[in-house]
Design brief:
The complex is a heterodimer of chains A (about 110) and B (about 110).
Chain A lengths: L3 E4 L2 E5 L4 E7 L6 E7 L5 E8 L4 E4 L2 E6 L4 E6 L8 E6 L14 E6 L1
Parallel strand pairs in A: 2-10
Antiparallel strand pairs in A: 1-3, 3-8, 4-5, 4-9, 6-7, 7-8, 9-10
Chain B lengths: L3 E4 L2 E4 L5 E7 L6 E7 L6 E7 L5 E2 L8 E7 L2 E6 L8 E8 L5 E3 L3 E5 L1
Parallel strand pairs in B: 2-11
Antiparallel strand pairs in B: 1-3, 3-8, 4-5, 4-9, 5-6, 7-8, 9-10, 9-11
Classes of the chains: A mainly beta (about 110), B mainly beta (about 110).
């Protein structure tokens, strides 16, 4: 069974800071990992998908890295903005399954 | 990215009634869709995997007779909450996977059972 831990659980920063969100998972036999953001009362928006053969993936101010051997992924947000305020979730699928397992997320608040 | 829609976005019903939630992949075909449930301040929990043309696979502890899933086409899956009770009140979210293994989520349905 895949278990996912995200640290920190909550984070409040002033606008402009660079941020690092951490995700660890127990079973490293994954074929990919996705990062999502969720705004309050809304669905999930896919941010980045990292295939198991990749070490990192970039989209705009976001960069996600994956270290399968250590069971870790990191989401880096550069020059944070108030619009980045949301809950960020990492989701590796359990081995042999197509559904995703979610951590409890990191609640980010970027102050103007 | 691909778009997944859900309908309705919000529903309030009386205890004992049944509620149907639709999940559609708008610009791609999805042989597999997933249904999740999210309680306040908690993360998403997988309820079932919906497979086009076959029976859904339910997670342990999820009553298949209470949460009926039908995946009638490559773009539509429905979740019916039968004889809903207040404890079924939750945020229900579906997702669909494209051929590249990326999953896309719908906007969710807020169910309130009085």
């Amino acid at each position: 069974k895949q278990e996912v831990t995200q640290i920190p659980a909550a984070l409040s920063v002033p606008e402009g800071e660079n941020l690092v969100l951490n995700c660890s998972f127990t079973d490293s036999a994954i074929y990919n990992l996705q990062w999502f953001r969720q705004d309050p009362g809304k669905g999930l928006t896919s941010l980045l998908l990292i295939q198991s053969s990749q070490r990192e993936q970039t989209s705009g101010r976001l960069n996600a890295s994956l270290d399968k051997s250590s069971g870790r992924s990191t989401l880096y947000i550069a020059a944070s903005q108030p619009g980045d305020s949301a809950t960020y979730l990492c989701a590796p699928p359990p081995p042999g399954r197509r559904a995703l397992t979610f951590g409890s997320g990191t609640r980010l608040q970027v102050q103007p | 990215g691909a778009v997944v829609s859900q309908h309705p976005s919000r529903v309030i019903c009386k205890s004992g009634t049944s509620v149907k939630i639709e999940c559609r992949s708008l610009d791609f075909q999805a042989t597999t869709m997933f249904w999740y449930r999210q309680f306040p301040k908690q993360s998403l929990m997988l309820m079932a995997t919906s497979n086009e043309g076959s029976k859904a696979t339910y997670e342990q502890g999820v009553e298949k007779d209470k949460f009926l899933i039908n995946h009638a086409s490559l773009t539509l899956s429905t979740l019916t909450v039968t004889s809903a009770h207040p404890e079924d009140s939750s945020f229900y979210i579906c997702s669909a996977r494209d051929d590249g293994y990326e999953q896309f989520f719908g906007p969710g349905t807020r169910l309130t059972v009085l």
